[in-house]
Amino acid sequence: MITNSALLLIPLGITMIAPLFVWIFRKNVNLRESISFVAALLTFLSLIPIGLGVLKGNIYTYTLFKILPGINVKFCADGLSLIFAIISSFLWFFATSYNIGYMRSLNEHAQTRYYICFAIAIFGAQGVALSGNVFTLYLFYEVITIFTYPLVAHHQDEEAYTGAKKYIVYLMGTSKLFLLPAMILTYVLAGTLDFRLGDIAKGIFPPGTNPIWITITYFLYIFGLAKAAIMPLHNWLPSAMVAPTPVSALLHAVAVVKAGVFSISRIILSVFGLQAMNHFNLGIPTAYLAAFTIVTASLIALTKDDLKARLAYSTVSQLSYIVLGVAMLSPFAVTGGLAHIAHHAFSKITLFFAAGAIYVATHLKKISLMNGLGKKMPLTYTAFALASLSMIGVPPVCGFVSKWYLVNGAVDINRVILLIALLASTVLNAAYFGPIVYKGFFGKPHPDINLDEYKEAPLTMVVPLTITALISVLLGLYPDPFLNFIKTLGGVKWPF
After folding, report:
1. How far apart are alpha carbons 270 and 61 in whole angstroms?
2. What DSSP element (H or E) covers 180?
3. Residue 284: left if φ>0, alpha if ψ -120 to 50, beta else—which one?
4. 4 by DSSP, 3-state: which?
5. In this predicted structure, what is the pLDDT of residue 246?
6. What count of other Cβ atoms lies within 10 Å of the Cβ of residue 457?
7. 220 φ, ψ to 5°?
8. 199, 248, 393, 479 — which has fewest CB within 10 A?
9. Distance (Å) of CA 87 to CA 94, 254, 339
10. In the predicted model, what is the mean pLDDT of residues 12-16?
11. CA-to-CA distance for 180 and 330, rounded, in angstroms?
12. What is the pLDDT, as a whole number, of residue 251?
């Protein structure tokens, strides 16, 4: 049942005014940072009644204002919306605690600007998650891009500006060259930009629409949503690693890249629909492109000695699991892809939190210098190990659930190459995560490193990464919370 409800404005309103209060209380650092805690908690709590309604079969919509016939600022909440909205608000709480430990320990400059931009990025993520049409999604997608640029350039040195320039050129360039034309073509072909809600089998394009224009529009979306980091439009993401580690966590787990893969999932399921994707043979070429990205990025990750660089290419690979799953179009595969939006978020934010904790405690960036460090930082390395198991796809951590459905999806549609890519990526993930964990606990210390100088990072950093690692395990043991949201998406028979 589709219900018109202003409830959708509450999480958006909270995240919109939070940056203002951060600025108002900028001279009281404790109060300034408390604003982010309170806003994160209130945003998450405001989503609970919406989520409960969605689980009961409701779909919420709300039109804020109209611009032209078929073009308006409109919000919605269905099962797909809630997955992204919940993880972005929930993880904001832990990211805030981590931010405090990181920024204060390193005595970073411009902390008020940092917290304001961080909060606006979460506002953008909520807007993308709750968008009811392509136009609204486009607006909030750009909000994320614009206000994460100062975060990437935070250090304000030559390296930071170079990385931030590549970041903004890639993301703004692709959105203007590809995403904007895709939106215009959608309006011309369909007469509306509203998502079809409640039935992911059927899209919004009327019967008889020219298949050539459908295909052109589709691939404009795929390349226009470059936040998904599908090769070859991925290079902005490793370059953005010049940002502080909490920003990397925001980029890789919470807001930016998740906005990309969420948007691709939304476009495939709620604009084109599974039937049109099959009819016009759009899914399998996309799946092959995603499979290429998965394997190639994993091979590049193997060559990186810088921990954040290795994690960056891991993110490029893992994001394409989501695209691969949705593009395979089978219920098994779509389940695995959408579940991985949440499962990857908890595991990857743990990995980046751990990388930042290691840097704050030791100022080490190179993996080759971290041998034996697990003995001095056991909580950090144990959390890193659990999150690594999730990336590899080992039970009982949540990454296994995603990969289980993805593998079954590849078998279901009888695509051996996609199955091989998934299995190969598992081996490659083990190859580039396994040595970090093993050598961290059992490796002989590097001769230039005195381990006695090091200890765990501040508790404001260690506690969040420990909790997110444990949640990764809990979601592996009890995956129903996010699977139930997927099940509310109508139009197919779900395999659970």
Report:
1. 14
2. helix 180-190
3. alpha
4. strand
5. 72
6. 25
7. -65, -40
8. 199
9. 11, 7, 11
10. 97
11. 29
12. 67
User: Is residue 19 within 8 Å of residue 116, measured between CB atoms?
Assistant: yes
Could you tell me which of 235, 231, 228, 243 has the C-alpha nearest to residue 169? 235
d(CA 399, CA 250): 19
Q: What is the pLDDT of residues 387-407, one digit of tens each?
A: 999 999 999 999 999 999 999
Q: How far apart are CA 178 and CA 219, in angstroms?
A: 8
What percentage of the chain's residues is helix, strand, coil (to nearest 5)?
A: 75, 5, 20
Retrieve residue 446's tokens. 């590097």
pLDDT value for 90: 94
User: Do 317 and 425 contact (CB within 8 A), yes or no?
Assistant: yes
Distance CA 89, CA 94 (A): 10
User: To which residue do tokens 């920024």 refer?
Assistant: 103
> For helices 134-152 and 158-174, what crossing angle results, to 10°?
170
Separation CA 241–CA 247 (nearest Å): 9
CA distances from 249 to 151, 246, 411, 470 (A): 12, 5, 33, 17
Q: What gap in Å lies between CA 156 and CA 305, rounded to an integer?
A: 24
**For residue 431, pLDDT beyond 90:** yes
Mean pLDDT of the chain: 93
Structure tokens given for 305: 């000695």
Closest CA to 224 of 285, 138, 287, 165: 138
Q: Where are the alpha helices (DSSP H) in 256-398?
A: 256-267, 273-279, 283-302, 307-328, 331-362, 378-392
Q: Are 272 and 219 in contact (CB under 8 A)?
A: no
Provide the 8-state DSSP code for 487: H
Arithmetic mean of pLDDT, 211-223: 96
Report d(CA 45, CA 457) in Å as an integer: 30
Q: What is the mean pLDDT of residues 213-224?
A: 96
